[in-house]
Amino acid sequence: xxxxxxxxxxxxxxxxxLDVEETANFVTPAGVVHNCRPPxxxxxxxEEIAACKPYLLEQIRLVxxxxxxxxxxxxxxxxxxxxxxxxxxxxxxxxWEGRPCMAIFxxxxxxxxxxxxxxxxxxLMWQDIQxxxxxxxxxxxxxxx
Length: 145
Description:
Elements (H helix, E strand, L loop, with lengths): L1 E5 L8 E6 L2 E6 L2 E4 L11 H18 L4 E4 L1 H8 L5 H4 L3 E4 L2 E6 L2 H6 L8 H23 L2
Parallel strand pairs: 5-7
Antiparallel strand pairs: 1-2, 2-3, 3-4, 6-7
């Protein structure tokens, strides 16, 4: 695995790209995004999730992110084993593997639901991202001597 720093618009935010064969993993201080999708971008089978999971767990261990965002129900279910629907659990903090985590809507879902009206997916996502920023600031303030 090779860790490459990427240019960032904000100097206080470090963004990395981890090269792991043909997958693209973008890592920020707030979490990991892992691309391991089956053909046709269909939902992976339990066997496919089981095949990719050890690699993702090792990447999480190596990067040691402060916060993990589960982007969509598949990511949430695949890592936690919980079966709740994304609309029920999005925006709620959970602890997983000793880290604060939040399930958020998948970007594809947001593209299919473009309204920014209060209560709609994009508005809800904005609320979630603000909560993530607040949590990250809180974690950073605790780590400053």
